[in-house]
Amino acid sequence: MKEATVQHDHGAIATRSATVVATGVGKVFGSGANKVQALDDVSFEVPQGSFVSILGPSGCGKSTLLRLIAGLQPISSGEIQVNDHTPDEMRKAREFGIVFQQPILFDWRTVEQNVALPLQLIGTPKEERKRRVSENIELVGLSDFRKHRPWQLSGGMQQRVAIARALAFGPRFLMMDEPFGALDMMTRERMQTELLRIWASRPGTTIVFITHSISEAVLLSDRIVVMSARPGRVMRVIDVDIERPRTDEARKDERFLEIEAEIRDLIFSQEHA
Amino acid sequence: MTEPGYNRTREALITAAIVVGVLALWYLAAGILAAGDDPLANSKLPYPHVIVERFFDDFSEVTSAAWTSLSTALIGFAIGTAVGIVLSVIMVQAAWIESAVMPYLLAAQMVPMIALVPISQTVFKNDTATRLFIAAFITFFSVTVAVVRGLKAAPPPARELMRSYNAGRLRTLRYLDLPAAMPMLFSGLRVAAPLSLVGSVLVDLMGGSQGLGYLMLAAQTFGPAQATLVWVAMFVLLALGFLLAQAVVMAEKVLAPWQPAMRQGGGH
After folding, report:
1. Which of B160, B179, B180 sits opposite A72 (nearest CB)?
2. 3-state secondary structure of B46
3. Residues B92 and B154 sit within 8 Å (Cβ to Cβ)
4. Continuous segment of H or E residues that includes residue A39
5. A interface mutation test: which of B165, B172, B176, B258 has the most A CBs within 10 A?
6. Cβ separation of B164 and A169 shorter than 8 Å?
7. What pLDDT tens digit does each residue of chain B (268 aa) get?
């Protein structure tokens, strides 16, 4: 594994311009008696090139929110702007690389072919495609497994392939829906620091990350949008001012523990109310 | 865990033992029948070696009939498969199309072949065309039902993934849904392959003038002396059906080797 050498040219997060702006977003599923208000009046901003986590218990609509930003589902009310465009326009411009909780790799393709899939669909010329595929597979540390089939890999490795595939076509946004949620604890923590390393080598990429793990959100994020459930609402937006690059050491940082405690109090105060 | 090699040997031994057992029972039954006072016993249930001899005696006649049955079954099978895949793709485009077409598909399956064969004979006025139609008809049903399910096998996030690449219907079909439907397609083909052969032979039995079915019928009408030929035709049909099913399994191993049941080499 290479060390993270590329520094982020982050200024203070508050001074950077917003790239995703959600204003009073609501999402309703169904109609009549079956109507479910999944999201209600959700507003927050994602600064350019930052790592923003959306954190909340299950049923808070955080995965739905990710799908709205990525233009995969229509918004019921309110507005989301991504670089002054609608999410749907940005999706069609292929600005979103998506990683789901399940790796969703195609079993009939090798690792290499899975990573090549979006490039193939976009029509990237063959030489360029090859270069990008091997570059991204190397980035996630799977060069020795290029010809393997997905089911020959461990869960963590499969998720690395999914990350390589999401980055292969150079999208400006990486949308991650609980990407490490299905992994065991140790693999999960290793993948978190891996993700930071990978992100560091793709400066300018904005990450929106869905999680229900407080420590995961604190370790990774510049900003955390803490949500409550039924309907999903924003409880608080917290900026994480822990210095980067962050490693496993950051987990012991005083500031880390403070923010973690703040979020925990916030979530539990609401649950017992 | 037992070694795969060990299992395979055991499997082969069991298969061989069953074959030997069946043959032994056959000889026993034929012997008992011959010991009775029925003068036609030998043609009703001939000894297995008599059937084999008869096969070589009438080799050209049998192979020509077999070729008629096999070739029409295969072409009908191919047509039925193609029509089935196309119809499945159309059906999954919208829920209303599927719910509109599905009842007819199920109704079509309920049509007894014994009723359909004479009808299509009067329509086509040609044995070969009728054989192709019946073989295709049988195949088409199994394939359509299986592929419709297969085309829905991809999980919703896979579809979202394709949407995030802005892939349209055609590309989603080509890169996601069709490959994902392959295992179901093959399970449909496995069922349909031997049935297409039966379909073709059924036409011979109901008025055709060629094929294995015709051979059986003709042999029966020519009297007890020819009855062994009925057995020959039956075993040839059985062997062809078995070979067709095996061919589908082989094709699947080549074309869709990624399925859990066919995987070689374990995980990490």
Report:
1. B160
2. coil
3. no
4. strand A36-47
5. B165
6. no
7. 445 567 888 989 999 999 999 999 999 998 888 888 777 777 778 888 989 999 999 999 999 999 999 999 999 999 999 999 999 999 999 999 999 998 998 888 888 888 999 999 999 999 999 999 999 999 999 999 999 999 999 999 999 999 999 999 999 999 999 999 999 999 999 999 999 999 999 999 888 888 999 998 888 887 777 888 999 999 999 999 999 999 999 999 999 988 887 776 544 4
- Least CB-CB distance to A108: which of B161, B258, B268? B258
| A-B C-beta contacts closer than 8 Å | 66
- The answer to whether the CB atoms of A100 and B266 lie below 8 A apart is no
Question: Which pTM value belongs to this model?
Answer: 0.84
Quick count: other Cβ atoms within 10 Å of Cβ A213? 17
Cα B2 versus chain centre, distance:
33
Q: Least CA distance to A117: which residue of chain B?
A: B175
Residue A186 is which amino acid? M
Residues of A (179-238) whose Cβ lies below 8 Å from B: none
b/e code B208-239 from CB counts within 10 Å (16+ = b): bebbbbbbbbbbeeeeeebbbbbbbbeebbee
Amino acid at B257: P
CA dihedral A86, B159, A139, A198 (to 10 degrees): 50
C-alpha A212/C-alpha A229 separation (Å) is 12
